[in-house]
Amino acid sequence: MIRELSVFNWINSDTNKLTRDSVAYLIGMFGAELVGVASSGWGAVFHVVILFSLITHAALVGNHPSYRLFLVLALGPLIRIVSLTMPLEGFSQTYSFLLISIPVLVGVLGYIRLLGLRPAEIGFTLGKIPIQVVVAIVGIGFGLADYFVLEPEPLVSELTWQKAVVPAIILMVSVGFVEELLFRGVMQRVVGLLGSWGWVYIAVLYAVLQIGHDSVLHCLLSFEIALFFGWVVKKWGSILGVVVAHGLMNIYLYLIFPLVF
């Protein structure tokens, strides 16, 4: 009995330390985002420091399971480094989404291979199809709410198939698929090391990385959206519905609602 309590205390203490370390890195990314609002260059520098800290931390813990956690958290600053430093002058906003998503997707696929994650572990399952359809439709409502917060300029001058089909595909793939594979597929799966509320941590992280939009309301809405997406994936184990929902949210946000309203 004493031995069992000792093992339990060790596991509990280990989890608490992981939680403290993870929260510290989250606070660091929050600070880097705030710096990035004032100066994108300095914001990128702070994210580089956090990125190397996470990689070094992962190396120092060796074969301990927590190395997976720190490696995956490094994807957070990696996204922002790419978006802040990639030379996008001369490209439209539509193709900027695509260009930013390519290195992010390559990094995510590399992590999947490195960590040996199977397709089913990162949400490549059908789940309950009726539920996934409902979740996908909810994405349109999220797009409407976010439109009234951000009021972005439309990506196309008029809503025709010829002009809208390519931007719609890019938004579905580069934003919907890549971001959900990253956050709800890979990160949420691995951050389960923090306990049953790891998916909430990912929702907070996702909202923190939206600070660059310079809108408190957008960050709060992003947190609510990420909570819903995270809960869906935790509940039914599939990212299918949230991928389509995220894609539709951005299609309506950037293509349809700006022209409708």
Structure notes:
This protein is an all-alpha fold and 261 residues long. The chain has one domain. 79% of the residues lie in helices and 0% in strands. The chain is built from ten helices and no strands. Helix 2 packs antiparallel against helix 3, helix 5 (93-115) packs parallel to helix 7 and helix 6 (129-150) runs parallel beside helix 10. The longest helix is centred in the N-terminal third of the chain and has 37 residues, at 2-38. It is globular.
| Number of DSSP strand runs | 0
Beta-strand content estimate: under 5%
Oligomer designation: single chain
Number of structural domains: 1
Mean pLDDT: 90
What is the element layout, followed by pairings?
Blueprint: H1 2-38, H2 40-60, H3 66-73, H4 75-85, H5 93-115, H6 129-150, H7 161-190, H8 198-208, H9 216-236, H10 240-260
Helix pairs in contact: 1-2, 1-8, 2-3, 2-4, 4-5, 5-7, 6-9, 6-10, 7-8, 7-10, 8-9
